Amino acid sequence: MTGRLEGRAALVIGGARGIGGGIATRFAAEGAQVAIADLEDAEGKALAAELGGFYRRTDVSDGAEADAAVAEVVDRFGKIDILVQNAGIYPWTLIEDTSAEEWHKVLGVNLGGCFLATKAAVKHMKTQGYGRIVLTSSITGPRVTSPGHGHYSASKAGINGFIRSAAIEFAGYGVTVNGIEPGNILTEGMKAHRSAEFIKDMESAIPVGRMGTPADIAAAALFLASEEAEFITGTTIVVDGGQIL
Ligand code: NAI
Q: Which residue ranges does the record assign to the Ketoreductase domain (predicted)?
């Protein structure tokens, strides 16, 4: 059986582990050539080698680094059909305790990274007349929130606004721009930043009765990144096991 991304060239930023690792793995299984850009060199290199692609150390909040990652994909794969910008950080800090530096850092990686990566990739996609851009948003910000997530919520709600505007700008060039809003997904980052108690409470708050997995998000990313999703642009898919209902 042919994979759903056969012949496609993909870049997954924030793809060394967690949700991005799940996306990179699924894309490769569906026949895509996959490049991983991240700051976790050891995990990124190991996964890229396993998937038959390559790894490039990239801080997505730096425009020159985002440009260089995209350029290497075009150089090595001959094109870039799919961009996933999934890199994100989620510190927990109450607004009164948040320094301007931390605010700018969260906005710079989560939201700025989506802008910089999209800007870097879209010029190639427009020339090709084909592109699929998938950005990782969150239910936190656009749909729900809680104390301690001021910067994070602003960054993720911002991604949804960016998606809509970018979708209109690129719609005439065969380039779609969409996002995914994950609910609570059990990843390395989640385990590092949230207590075991939080994770247990969360499991009982999710109607489906479990935390999500990177594979759950990868399934949605695969659809948005596929040719079949041609008529879908400027929107997001919530993948949360019913949590926001
Ligand atoms: P994670 O921490 O396990 O993985 C994130 C990856 O992004 C890491 O490999 C990290 O090194 C990389 N990264 C961080 N800053 C970077 C930068 N400046 N440049 C390049 N790479 C960078 O996190 P997880 O849980 O897999 O989250 C992935 C995305 O999904 C994030 O955008 C997060 O906000 C979002 N998300 C996660 C949820 C969850 O429950 N885990 C829920 C909703 C959204």
A: 8-183
Q: Report d(CA 206, CA 212) in Å as an integer.
A: 9
Output the DSSP codes for 28-63. Answer: HHTT-EEEEEES-HHHHHHHHHHHT-EEEE--TTSH
**Tens digit of each residue's pLDDT (9 = 90 or more) over 80-120:** 999 999 999 999 999 999 999 999 999 999 999 999 999 99
pLDDT mean over 192-196? 84
Q: How far is CA 230 from CA 10, 130, 216, in A?
A: 17, 10, 21
**Bridge partners, 124 (sequence order):** none
CB atoms within 10 A of CB 181: 24
CA atoms lying within 13 Å on the CB side of residue 71? 7
| Ligand 1 lined by 160 (C-beta under 6 Å) | no
pLDDT-derived band of residue 192, with 50, 70 and 90 as boundaries?
Answer: confident
Task: Quote the ligand 1 centre to 140 CA distance (angstroms).
Answer: 14
Domains of the chain, with CATH numbers? 9-105+114-239 (3.40.50.720)
pLDDT at residue 1, rounded to an integer: 66
Instruction: Examine the residue annotation and report whether 173 is marked as an active-site residue of this protein.
Output: no
In three-state secondary structure terms, 229 is helix
Buried b (16+ CB within 10 A) or exposed e, 99-137: eeeebebbbbbbbbbbbbbbebbbebbbebebbbbbbbb
What is the token pair recorded at 111? 């939201």
Structure tokens at 74: 């075009």
Average pLDDT, the chain: 97
Distance 31 CA to ligand 1 centre (A): 24
Task: Tell me which residue has its CA closest to atom 28 in ligand 1.
Answer: 19
